[in-house]
Amino acid sequence: MSRRSDIVPPEWRPAILAAVIFAASSLGAFWAHQEGRVISTATIYLFGVTLVGAIAGLRGGLVAALAASLIYNFFLSDPIFQFSLTTADELAPLVAFNLAAIASGYVAGRLRDEARKASLSNRKLDALLNFSERLQSAIEVDGVLTAGARFLGDGGGIGLEYYRALDGGLAPTGAREDHRALAEALLASGESALRNDKARAFAIVSADKWRGVLVARDAPGGNARQEGSERDGFITLLGLALERCVLLEELAQADAVRRSEELKTALISSVSHDLRTPLGAISASASSLARYHDELSRETRIGLLRTIQEQCSRLNGYTTNLLNLGRIQAGVARADMPHCDALEVLGSAIARARALGGSHRLEKRFDTAAAQVHADPVMLEQVFYNVLENAVRYTDREGRILVSAELDGDALVVEVNDDGPGIAPAEREKVFQRFYRGNDGGTTGGTGLGLSIARGFTEAFGGSIQAGRAIAPLGGAAIAIRLPVAGQSCA
Amino acid sequence: MTGRVLIIDDEPALVGILHPVLEATGWTVFSASTAIEGLRRARTEAPDIILLDLGLPDLDGKELIPSLRALEDVAVIVVSARHQEAEKVVALDAGADDYVDKPFEIGELAARIRAAQRRLRSKARANTLESSDLSIDFDRRLVKVQGESVKLSPKEFELLRTLGEHVGQVVTHKRLLLAGWGDPNIDPQYLRSYIGLLRQKLEADPAEPRLLVTESGVGYRLVLDDQ
Q1: For the segment A443-485, what is each residue's pLDDT rounded down to a tens digit?
Q2: Which residues of B touch A (CB under 8 A)?
Q3: Which domain holds residue B71?
Q4: What ipTM was assigned to the predicted interfaces of this complex?
Q5: Main-chain dihedrals φ then ψ at residue A42, nearest 5 degrees
């Protein structure tokens, strides 16, 4: 837009232009009259009136024609300074000016109407394209409604409401009672559309199921410029988009169910594999003893029996972990937990870990004698034991494990350091994931549950557990358990 | 029977059992806990039988099978706690000779090892198969059940021949379809029908088959008690 449009409102421009042209042609006519050119005088005026008609339309043209006739009659034609319509010469300019104004005004008006229609339909097309793009990109019901409301708000004043079908009724969205009643009436009627004097309701159906009801109403104060057929077209488009969204939502739900089923299958397969491995060793040992008893040396027989014992305890540990997993999933209430001395519990876990076998050097470095925490002692022992067991598994048989305990403000920090291969920074969070088994090569007999249970329980006690790098000179893995210490009075 | 057995399994407890027990029953035993080490030992130790676990730390055991089968005169028996039929079929199609589920009884494993070794020894196509229940003369196409001659259709005979060549070992549907129909993609329903016909002719009680054993989802196995 030019700067002039800021000074002169656009709707005034044709009128001003017409006035300028009228004034110019009047001046021209007077000049021709002075020169005594009668025909030029009439022709100039005729041309001016035609132009004004073309610019200002029929009405402006007629005003100009009438004014021109009067001026011409009064000032320019004989008798001068006197109105007279007695001769044909006096009547001719009046008729000619008016006919010219009518003809040019009509043609110009038609042209302008066409142009306006074309620009209007262009705008509609743009809006429709915009709308359909928005509809296509909308993947949620709300998005479709927003796009629809924006489009209709631009073009014509239809309010939109959508009611989701839910268990045979309609979802209670905060909407107007009368529209809700219309939507319910539609649902009850089983028809695909229903209208009353203020609004219309359309059923959104996909795969032969009722998904919801779209209610379109005339917005209060809206200028309903949209033609009826266009409006129906938009609503059909909206309906299709809503159906698509509903289907997408269902697809997403089905996908989520399928993924959760897949996860369950993977868990079951992992659990059954982990249960079968010790069972396999027990079955092979027992059947070997039964079948080849006499062929086997005494040492071999004892070895087989010992394997059976070890694998039974491994199965038992695994079962405990599975039960604990169930316990975490069911939710652990901290309120019911008693106070206990974490260091006493830690001591008992260390004693159990020493019995795991191997000749690990398990060292203690406690900077405090006791630390009361708000935790279930059995679960807490499981936390410490799982972390210690992990350290034993991932270090050599001669490996060194250092357990430290110290108070840090209101928290007790228990750290288990080892001189094993350590945990790469990228793995430090993953090791707490259920069934995650680092790069252990499967040789450790781990189940991928120990640390995930340790984290679940620790968090239930209001604490935290992190993996890191062990202090020098060990340099392996470090697991730090941080527990809030209960009030001093309990110490 | 004796020979050389290579155990490729990452579970130390199981290796710790199989090693002394198989040695005590006359086998020379080697073991490896990774796929790479297993392949190396398979090349250097020239085992007759390889017991292969699928869940190895460095590689899925199935991927190792083609390399192991490329070695001369070796039978691969998959020993795994993965019980999915599809997985067994993939392993067998990749060239494994047999499959044993964990947990297993040592007697079962020993029988599979013996069957595999017998098949290795009779590499040239065996002419006859004799047991107390069943005798087959492959060349003359004669089949006897407890001494009584049984008449088989050509397709029934081809199926029995394929099972007989792998006596004691599982034979996949695919391989049987190939043997009987020349096309592994035929509807397995045909195979079921023919196995049903064979059972009618060979089994004492076809409703409770003891010779032609079904390996659900995988294939069939011809089991002869005294083999």
Answers
A1: 555 677 888 889 988 988 889 999 999 888 888 999 999 999 9
A2: 10-14, 16-18, 20-21, 24-25, 33-34, 55-58, 81-84, 102-107, 109-110
A3: 4-121
A4: 0.81
A5: -65, -40
